[in-house]
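User: quick one - fold this with manganese (II) ion bound?
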Amino acid sequence: MTATASLKYDLHCHTTCSDGSLSPLELIQRAAEQGVDVLSITDHDTALAYQQLESTNQLPLKIIPGIEFSTVWRKINIHIVGLNIQPQSDALKIGVTHQHQARKERAERIAEKLTGYGFNDALDRTSKIAGNDNIGRPHFAQYLVEIGAVSNIKQAFKKFLGSGKPCDIKQLWADLPQTIEWILDAGGTPVLAHPAKYKLTRTKLLAFLDDFIAAGGQGMEVVSGKQIPSVTRDLASICRQKNLYASCGSDFHQPGQDWAELGQYSTFPADCEPVWDHW
Ligand code: AMP
Ligand code: MN
Ligand code: MN
Ligand code: MN
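Assistant: Sure. Structure tokens for the protein plus manganese (II) ion:
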């Protein structure tokens, strides 16, 4: 692909196929309205959006097929975006099938934990909220808000679902090398999603990147939504130091979240090599 500085890329966002609120077509429409030229839909552990889009031939922007895989590294939940993948490839299908099973089992375990708090209808009601069996923690969070167990989504993560909390079950995900292998075998580029979100120390982030690169990882998001300039500078410098491709995206989930609107993110650092230059 020829990359020109004037194209707007958004290489990270979600639809109703995972925990987003817009259907793939609604999302694409909104992205086009927001001035996005090149979009990757990166739903959690599924490429279902691409299947849903198969019958649509005229799209208002260029699509780069993608996915956001969940993995675990040193007991930390890490997300790896696979960009420019072939959604129909065997490798991707194998990966998605594994993660789908893991997600289903995890939902059962989360529901079991919630039963211990006296919330007996968690799985049933959360499945209805998700609308399919691709259940994520945000769907459980919504359930907990609906039954009045917590006052808002943030509290649901703080009390039950967030990192280190009782319903944070992550051991079922594929490990880092496996996740990266699926992406590479599907013809894609493995990219570390939102590096600043894990709250890792710099030393730990560098240690992660060493393992990531050793396993075949090739890029990192230097810009994720609206982030402060010092974070971008830091990530850009790490990206160059580790010789990784740089990516950017909004991590859009739903309208109304100002910090994660389609096509809106902090300025892409000029001194990093854009991941799209390599496609
Ligand atoms: P899952 O893929 O089921 O593990 O859910 C992870 C998703 O939960 C993330 O992609 C976010 O959309 C959402 N999430 C994670 N932490 C929080 C939080 N503290 N508050 C609100 N949403 C969150
Ligand atoms: Mn999400
Ligand atoms: Mn993520
Ligand atoms: Mn995401």
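One thing worth noting: The mean pLDDT is 96.
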